[in-house]
Amino acid sequence: MPPRRTVRRGFAVMAVVGVVACTLTRDIPRAPAPVNACPAAVCAAYVGQTPTPTCQSGACETSAQIDYVLVVNVPQTSLFAPGQVFAIRSADLFTRTTANCKGRGCTVLPPLASLDGNYLVNPAGATTVGRVLSTPAVVTSLPIQVTMRPLWSQLPSDTPTDAADLGIPLDTVFGATRVPTYPDAPKGPGGASSVEFHVSVPAGRYERSVMPTAPFDDAFPPDIRAVLVPAPRYDQVLLVTDGSAIVEYPTPLSREGGDLDGFTVALVDAVTGRRASTLKTLGASDTSATLRVHRATGDETRLLDLRLAPPLAKADVLPVLSYAFVAGNPVTLRYPALPDPVVVEGTVGTDASDGGSSTPVAASIELASYELETTAEIDKNLKLQLVRRILTDAVGHYSVRLPPGRYHAAITPVDTSTASSGVASVGVGPARIAMSPTEDIRIASSPIVQKGRFLTLRPTARVRGR
Known about the structure:
Layout: H1 2-25, E1 54-56, E2 59-61, E3 69-73, E4 85-89, E5 112-117, E6 119-121, H2 123-128, E7 140-142, E8 144-152, E9 161-162, E10 173-174, E11 176-178, E12 196-202, E13 204-212, E14 223-229, E15 233-234, E16 237-239, E17 246-255, E18 264-269, E19 280-281, E20 288-294, E21 304-309, E22 320-324, E23 333-335, E24 342-350, E25 363-372, E26 383-385, E27 387-391, E28 397-402, E29 405-413, E30 422-426, E31 449-457
Parallel strand pairs: 5-15, 6-16, 17-23, 24-31
Antiparallel strand pairs: 1-2, 3-4, 5-12, 6-7, 8-9, 8-10, 8-13, 11-12, 13-14, 17-20, 18-19, 18-21, 21-22, 22-26, 24-28, 25-27, 25-29, 29-30
């Protein structure tokens, strides 16, 4: 009898387990498999598209060509063109082929050009600017620095402009210099070894700048011109024998209430800010300067600014003066008198406008003037600008000496993981000391020391869209 009771108990347990299992799995919902299909008439919602999109494999597609630029960064470890950056128009992606790269599945990078050259001055060219480079007088190669600024255009037929202005991420390429070792290499000043430049760039259009270095930059102008680099070649910059490659611009100068000792004057590109002429350092008795420009291709149409800059020792409190240059219309560039600079002290902290407390933040501050006070009214075409970059201490305190006026400030926290960058218009006024992105506050000419100027580091805004 006991054996039978044991068997019944085991059967009962197994039955219960079976019922529980059926209950758990009976009502589980089943998800439908995804289907690649366009909803009815959804492709008609793309108004104005030519040709009209149609449903292809579950998506609205059109066969219209979209123009774009493919940018290829070659790693430094590559055997071919290490560290180079290539930009390829979509229309040119498959126009170049090789034996191992054909068809639409393979793209051949543009060729890489290797440029070498010198800035050579003939004896007559040296005489034109009043410099003796060698005795006896021979063709002389000047020490130089070279840059290649990539140019681009929306359409191949358009006039090329700075690639960065069009959103193409191509950086300026800086050339290297080296001493040539071939037997007939030109000599440098005084018979010393010459220097030539070398630079490798992808084929394309560039603004090439070949600029003599000190102490020759005050007499010989940079050669700046747009060039097409189609293939490897040897590039030479040569001032012609009769000196006709040089254009001279006498420039009257003065300063109210002082002299211009240590100031520098030059013509700069109004768009890029790059120097386009010789650089003249002035003495205490100088009242004019002769600036020289190389008659390079396109110089007649380049917009230039006449720029008068203070000596480095005073660049923290004296602004740069610039004026739109017009050839054939010389004007006296008069540096105005400015009120004495004042000391502004304060703290950078987080925004407390929501009722919370502000936390001091260690940060870097860039202050750029947009309206400076002068002791007398100046020509409205003159532009004064001062840019200062300072660091706070560990608790956000700063102290800076500035001429009175109005400034824009860009604030960047030292620890970017705990705070955000902020941009604001700032200054110091008699009764207003707070700072906000929309607030203009003037730095007054008194008191000499202005304390308690709190700069608010605003949180960054999130912007979403499509």
